[in-house]
Amino acid sequence: MKRRTFLQLLGASALSRPLWGAVKHTEQYFIFIHAAGGWDVTLWADPRNERKGLVEPASTDNTDLTALTHWKKVALDSDTDTFEILAPSDVPMTFGPGIGDLYDLRDRLTIVNGLAMNTVSHPDGTCFSATGRHLAGGRAPASSIDVAIANELGVSQLLPDVSIQFPSAYIGDSLDRRAIPLRVPSAATIAKSLARSDAYFNDDDRASITALLTDEAHALAKHSAFPETYERLAAQESALPKLLGNELKAAFTPQALMAAYPQLDYKAKTLGQGALGAAFAVEAMKRNLVRVVSFALGGLDTHNQNYKFHAHTQQELFGTIATMVKLLDDAKLSDRTHILVFSDFCRTPQINLAGGRDHYPNNSALVISPRFKRGRVFGKTDHEQLLPAGDKPLSPPDLLATFLAAFNIDPRRYLRDGDVIKDMLA
Amino acid sequence: MRASALVLLAACGAGTVKPSAPAPLPAEHQVVLDTTPKERRRMLPPEVYLRAYLGWFGGLAPLDVQNRARPKGLFDAWEDYLSALGLPDYKIDLPRQTQSNTLMLATLGRLGEVLCVRAAEHDLHVKTPLDQRVVFAFDPKAGSLDEFSVGFDVLHRTFLGYPVRLAPADRAQKFYALFDEVRARHKAKNPLSPDETAWAAVCAALVQHPEAELY
After folding, report:
1. CB B182 to CB A205 under 8 A?
2. Which residue from A185, A205, A209 is facing B185, i.e. has the nearest CB?
3. Which of A45, A71, A325, A351 is most exposed by smallest CB count within 10 Å?
4. Measured at the alpha carbon of residue A6, what is the angle toward residues A4 and A11, in degrees to the nearest 5?
5. Residues of B numbered 24-83 whose beta carbons fall under 8 angstroms of chain A's beta carbons: which are they?
6. Of residues B89, B109, B178, nearest to A185 (C-beta)
7. What are phi and psi of B119, to 5 degrees?
8. For residues A24-59, b (16+ Cβ closer than 10 Å) or e, as one string?
């Protein structure tokens, strides 16, 4: 090969391939899941099967064992059984039976235990987990993690941040308005809002209308002191034909999502509606329409006899996540998709007089991301009280700061508190 | 005596002071009046939009809209769209949305489209007398740009609040092009005639116009 040809080829390849960061970051997808209600960490991430200090473990006295796939009995006392802690040999982790099907993906999990919550209020714990700040009055004082990620990496997407019953918060003047989360009660709402009847107008008519409105917005921008508002409106208008096309609105109806992803359990006892959120996330990412999808999977607030089914709810929760990860595998997206799962707080180590567990200011979180060290557990709790242990316990701001740092985002742009735990990062 | 009267007369006549404008005070410094807009344009709160929509289309109550719009799958129930419109949804504890977004635009567009279609049915299709029309209160001739501009001016005043002659010069031309395109596409089918469908499209474009959505 002649030297000139070689240099031309070299130059062309350098031009066609942007910097490492640009490629990596714009092609990533994010899923944030709020396990609503406060989960019992002793049933999955921080398992306990002994009576020690305050800890009264899950047992045949307080748990319905029917259909729990990972509950292997061991004796707790003469007439009560508890569960055997799952201790796989391939990873330095232990699990309780609530982990469900996610156990099979254990070598891809990063677990953070002993998160200091300093609250036992649902709204406050939810806000703290999602934003790294406690509530100020009734409002979130900082943006949530999904908004931060959408603002940094998602504004070029058609739908930067879809938030399905997730505690999203968009706070501050410095954020791009395209990162405003689309907050909806269910994936079906999106399909309904995008739906248009063909009885009077067809898609060509709507394309003509949006083309005209886009043109008008551009024209007005030229005469405006603040043209960016009109330009953004023009961008939104020009995106509408793609959103309003028959193909897209048909893809996001509940029926279409269920048909496309029959692997998810839509009839699950407590989380069936949440499974639609998972299906929406996979479909929207396959179509490269979104950067961030956030949704809630609830039903974990078990103060009384309903605690009997807490392990089932966890099994459904982690089963939904495991199926979603496998669907992302099939779509060859899982190496570019980053999942963070958190809850309001955990539940008390002791069983209350009603047979359930109340709120407790400790927590665990789950990350499934190639940017994190996999098959590892970070943070710890003490054996007797299930409270965060160590000189400087981890807290949600630490986890959120680390998550942002994993994508080269300066955490101080979004978080007042929190240290980056470099050891967590791959 | 005569002489003193003459002197007095002469004195009065010569000393007449004519009114004159006062001399301007000397300027100390100049103050520049700043009339530039200080804030970006933004979307209105969702209630304002909804109220505007209901007012434009005949002072409807929200439930009237729902009842009129539901047939043929043009709309559903308000409760399906609460969060998409930015309103709080207390059933699922979703708070009011403090910022507008793409989905809100799409939902308002859906609502605008259905209301325009229903107005075209009421005003044009059943040939309601002019004084009883809600939106299309004009003779809907549109054989030429001039004829179109008469009706378009009425719609422009209704939805954007000022006559079209004050708008950028080519606006009527652009909307006439839209009218023509839609009319050409709907030669045979459709519950409405080609002209009625085209007027409904012009209406749907105006309710979603940037000037209608921002202030």
Report:
1. yes
2. A205
3. A351
4. 95
5. 36-37, 39-42, 72-74, 76, 80-83
6. B89
7. -65, -40
8. eeeebbbbbbbbbbbbbbbbbbbbbbeeeeebbbbb
For residue B97, the chain A residues in CB contact (below 8 A) are 180, 183
Which B positions 131-160 lie with beta carbon below 8 A of chain A?
none
Count of beta carbons in the 10 Å neighbourhood of residue B168:
14
pLDDT by position in tens, chain A (length 426): 444 444 343 333 333 333 333 334 458 999 999 999 999 999 999 999 999 999 999 999 999 998 899 999 999 999 999 999 999 999 999 999 999 999 999 999 999 999 999 999 999 999 999 999 999 988 899 999 999 999 999 888 888 999 999 999 998 878 887 788 888 888 888 888 877 778 888 888 999 999 999 999 999 999 888 888 788 788 777 777 777 766 677 788 889 999 999 999 888 776 777 899 999 999 999 988 899 999 998 889 999 999 999 999 999 999 999 999 999 999 999 999 999 999 999 999 999 999 999 999 999 999 999 999 999 999 999 999 999 998 889 999 999 999 999 999 999 999 999 999 999 999
Assigned CATH for A19-57+87-195+245-424: 3.40.720
Confirm if A43 and A348 have CB atoms less than 8 A apart. Answer: no
Whose tokens are 């995008």? That residue is A194
Q: ipTM score here? A: 0.79
CA distance A426 to A399: 14
Residue in B145, B144, B117, B122 with CA at minimum distance from that of residue B133: B122
